[in-house]
Amino acid sequence: MKLEAIQAALREANLDGWLFYDHHRRDPIAYRVLDINPVMCTRRWYYIIPREGEPAKLVHRIESHNLDALPGTVERYSSWREQREGLSRLLHGRKTVAMQYSALNNIPYIGLVDAGTIELVKSCGVEVVSSADLVQQFEAAWSDEQWQSHLAAGKVVHESVRAAFSAIREAVKAGKEISEFEVQQEMMRVFDAGGIITDEAPCVAVNANSADPHYSPSKEQSQAIHAGDFVLIDVWGKQNKPGAVYFDITWTGYVGEKVPEQYTKVFDVVSEARDAAIILVKNALQAGRVISGYEVDDAAREVITRHGYTTFFVHRTGHSIGEDVHGNGANMDNFETHDERRIIPRTCFSIEPGIYLHDFGIRSEVNVFAGARDASVTGEIQTEIVPILAAP
Question: What architecture is the 142-387 domain classified under in CATH?
Answer without folding.
Answer: Alpha-Beta Complex (3.90)
